[in-house]
Amino acid sequence: MTTFDQLLTEQIGHEFAASQQYVAIAVWFDDHDLPQLASHFYRQSVEERNHAMMLVQYRLDRDMGVTIPGVPAVQTEFADHTEPIRLSLEQEKRVSEQIQALFAAARAEGDGLGEQAMLWFLKEQVEEVASMATLLTIAERTTNLFDIENFVARDMPSGAAVEADAPPAAGGAL
After folding, report:
1. Distance between CA atoms of residues 96 and 88, nearest Å
2. 117 CB contacts (<8 Å, ≥6 apart)?
3. What pTM does this model have?
4. What is the sign of the dihedral through the CA atoms of 130, 132, 137 and 138?
5. Is residue 97 part of an annotated ligand binding site?
6. Residue 9: which domain range?
7. Would you say residue 112 lies in a domain?
8. Neighbours of 86 (CB within 10 A)
9. 27, 77, 133, 152: which has the highest count of C-beta atoms within 10 A?
10. Which of 162, 86, 170, 76 is nearest to 120 (CA)?
11. How confident is the model at residue 161 (pLDDT cuts 50, 70, 90)?
């Protein structure tokens, strides 16, 4: 098994874990009567699930075999409204590092197809980190939760539309 192959299997698990963490965050915001933040993180959960399924489809298309890793327990309790957003930003930065490692492994192993497949994910991570960093900045600037809710409703993407250039997801994107 190549390093790229191993990291790709691990990344499927990381994406599913990110999806589960976003569900937990969404539920926390829902439980605290913050519907815009809850909706945003429910959408993020679906997006991360779709990313996992894109990697599954890639493995299927390349006849690499597929193993679905388990996911660790997620954090469900938070001290305040900024903590789950801070956790989300840390998670997106970690995923960015993981995707960069996948790209580097594909390049080191001369796997041009693997390298090409990771380019979309690298572009996606730039957007994810920037978006979450902005949300955290807004959340840290105010104690008025209605300001954050209004920002999310007004300025954060509301659709879970799959980009035209996105890789196909096994079973179809949700």
Report:
1. 12
2. 58, 106, 167
3. 0.93
4. positive
5. no
6. 3-68+76-155
7. yes
8. 16
9. 152
10. 162
11. low
Whether 74 and 21 have beta carbons less than 8 Å apart is answered as: yes
40 marked as part of a ligand binding site:
no
Query: Does 15 belong to an annotated binding site?
Result: yes
Q: What is the DSSP letter of 170?
A: T
Instruction: Reply yes or no on whether the pLDDT at 160 is more than 60.
Output: no
Specify the number of domains making up the chain: 1
The residue behind tokens 């990291």 is 7
- C-alpha 94/C-alpha 110 separation (Å) is 24
Cβ atoms 86, 137 nearer than 8 A: no
First to last CA, the chain: 31
Q: Would the annotation count 128 as a binding residue?
A: no
What is the domain-level CATH number for residue 46?
1.20.1260.10
Residue at 54 is within a domain? yes
Alpha helix segments (H runs only) across the chain = 3-31, 35-61, 82-108, 112-141, 145-155
Q: Whose structure tokens read 């926390």?
A: 28
How many CB atoms within 10 Å of residue 41? 25
CB 12 within 8 A of CB 68: yes
SS3 114: helix
Distance CA 30, CA 10 (A): 30
pLDDT digits (tens, 9 = 90+) for 31-41: 999 999 999 99
